[in-house]
């Protein structure tokens, strides 16, 4: 969390050769090779997916390089006063990957492991996600390398306000609109809205989405990502969900509500994990009771009406549907051969590595990719922003119907593309997203 001097976080993104990567000077030889960081791996995965789409679309090298390169990356130092009076300095980032289709859009993550590579990868995914579901945004992501679980609420407020102050010049309702992501929530968004508004001189609700409804947040936003995952999962299943067995990895904003909504649809949620452990019950977990247990104890560990399960075991359970809804890179070439679910729906961003993707495809496992499966969050963010710009709030039903319409439309397009070209749902989703961004860029032309 604390900045080391000299910093170990590379300021630039170096990577193995890739057709979509702009030319970089050769890195100096290293005496002791070390494995790439998780963030570096996430960026390599994102660039690999872009390459595949660019090959399929036969994009020229110039366009590939443009799409592989973030439009704007800002690294900031965030000094934070701890409760005991010490001052620490943490790294913060905001990356705007592309703005050809509209303002940049994407969440802000508070996680000790976040770095510029990871934030760049996630910003790129946001670009394709917004294009795929047809909302008029580019892609962005922010991150602050802090552990929110190890900070008091007042420390978190200070970090948030100071970070926002540093990125203030590049955000705004017409420029770049942040939202919640891992480790941030409605309260974080309220602090962001307030900090921006105080600096502007009047209330600007449209600068951020995922706010509390009292500040112009949309009805339905809190459960939107999970609702979208539910829609994607049920559409992919294509049959009566009654009794379908489900394992959910992650019990945060996305995982907990996804488990609840799937259980409400008739599915049998047999296993759930979070950072504290994993629990299982063959006859189905009582998801509402588990949420109450987590609210009380801080994690799923020790839930009475279930048996404990080894962490890695959840991903390898013999279930119909597996929902990784935590962090990226959890299904790898190492454990993919042991995945027994026939359907994987990505609630998190980037949970399946490209190597694992191939293993799963060869084994006939259907993977509904992140940029489709978890797009419900940014879809309702868009609806929130539209309401803010009109200063008019809609009812929850209206929001939910529009969410469903956009999710189903995007799913239908991905499925048709995949069937028509003999490609996986991920390849199809990326091809559609990348093509739309490339088209927007081409018709706008290059300035000057
Ligand atoms: N962080 C969410 C995502 O990865 C939501 C982004 C947003 O609403 O802008 O899609």
Explain what you see.
The protein is of the alpha/beta class and 448 residues long. It has two domains: 36-213, Rossmann fold (3-Layer(aba) Sandwich), CATH 3.40.50.10860; 224-368, Rossmann fold, CATH 3.40.50. It contains 13 helices and twelve strands. It has helices at 38-57, 61-68, 116-132, 153-167, 186-200, 224-237, 253-264, 287-297, 354-362, 370-373, 376-390, 396-421, 425-444, and strands at 72-81, 87-98, 104-110, 139-144, 176-180, 245-249, 268-274, 277-280, 307-309, 321-324, 343-345, 366-368. Mean pLDDT is 93; it is low at 1-17. The structure holds glutamic acid. Glutamic acid binds at residues 105-107, 179, 181, 209, 349, 374, 377-378, 381. The site of glutamic acid (GLU) has 11 residues, from strand 3 and helix 11.
Strand content: 15-25%
Q: What are the secondary-structure elements, in order, as H or E? A: HHEEEHEHEHHEHEEHEEEHEHHHH
> What's the helix count?
13
Global morphology: globular
Ends distance:
42 Å
Write down the CATH topology of the largest domain. Answer: Rossmann fold
The distinct bound ligands, ions and cofactors come out as: glutamic acid
Tell me the CATH architecture of the largest domain: 3-Layer(aba) Sandwich
Provide the spatial order of strands within the biggest beta sheet. Answer: 9-8-7-6-10-11-12
According to CATH, the homologous superfamily of the largest domain is Leucine Dehydrogenase, chain A, domain 1
Helix proportion: 40-55%
Contiguous uncertain segments of 5+ residues: 1-17
The overall strand count is 12
Give the integer mean of the pLDDT values.
Answer: 93
Highest CATH level, the class of the largest domain: Alpha Beta
* Biggest beta sheet attributes: 7 strands, mixed
Query: What structural class should be given to the helix and strand makeup?
Result: alpha/beta
What integer value in Å does the Rg equal? 21 Å
- Supply the number of structural domains: 2
């Amino acid at each position: 969390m604390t900045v080391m001097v000299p910093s170990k976080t590379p300021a630039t993104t170096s990577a193995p050769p890739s057709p979509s990567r702009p030319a970089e000077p050769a890195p100096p030889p290293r005496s002791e090779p070390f494995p790439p960081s998780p963030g570096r791996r996430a960026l390599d995965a994102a660039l690999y997916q872009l390459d595949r789409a660019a090959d399929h679309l036969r994009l020229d090298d110039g366009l590939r390089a443009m799409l592989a390169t973030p439009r704007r990356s800002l690294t900031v130092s965030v000094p934070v006063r701890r409760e005991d009076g010490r001052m620490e300095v943490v790294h913060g980032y905001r990356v705007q990957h592309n703005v050809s289709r509209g303002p940049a859009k994407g969440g802000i993550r508070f996680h000790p492991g976040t770095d510029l590579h990871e934030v760049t990868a996630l910003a790129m995914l946001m670009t394709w996600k917004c294009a795929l579901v047809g909302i008029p945004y580019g892609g962005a992501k922010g991150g602050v390398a802090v552990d929110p679980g190890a900070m008091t609420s007042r420390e978190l407020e200070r970090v948030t306000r100071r970070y926002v102050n540093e990125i203030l010049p590049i955000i705004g309702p017409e420029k770049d609109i942040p939202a919640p992501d891992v480790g941030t929530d409605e309260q974080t968004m309220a602090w962001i809205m307030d900090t921006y508004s105080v600096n502007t001189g009047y209330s600007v609700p449209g600068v951020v989405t995922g706010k509390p409804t009292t500040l112009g947040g949309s009805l339905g936003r809190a459960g939107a990502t999970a609702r979208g995952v539910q829609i994607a999962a049920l559409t992919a299943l294509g049959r009566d969900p009654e009794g379908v067995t489900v394992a959910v990895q992650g019990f945060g904003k996305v995982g907990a509500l996804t488990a609840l909504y799937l259980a409400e649809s008739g599915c049998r949620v047999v296993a759930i994990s979070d950072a504290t452990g994993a629990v299982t019950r063959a006859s189905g977990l009582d998801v509402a009771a588990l949420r109450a247990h987590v609210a009380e104890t801080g994690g799923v560990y020790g839930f009475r009406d279930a048996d404990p399960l080894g962490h890695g075991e959840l991903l390898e359970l013999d279930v119909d549907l597996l929902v990784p809804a935590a962090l990226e890179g959890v299904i790898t070439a190492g454990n993919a051969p042991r995945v027994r679910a026939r359907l994987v729906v990505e609630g998190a961003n980037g949970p399946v590595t490209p190597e694992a993707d191939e293993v799963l495809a060869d084994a006939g496992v259907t993977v509904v990719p992140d940029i489709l499966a978890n797009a419900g969050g940014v879809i309702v963010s868009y609806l929130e922003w539209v309401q803010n710009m009109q200063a008019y709030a809609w009812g929850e039903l209206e929001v939910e119907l529009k969410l469903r319409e956009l999710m189903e439309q995007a799913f239908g397009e991905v499925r048709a593309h995949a069937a028509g070209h003999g490609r996986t749902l991920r390849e199809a989703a990326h091809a559609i997203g990348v093509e739309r961004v490339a088209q927007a860029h081409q018709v706008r032309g290059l300035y000057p």
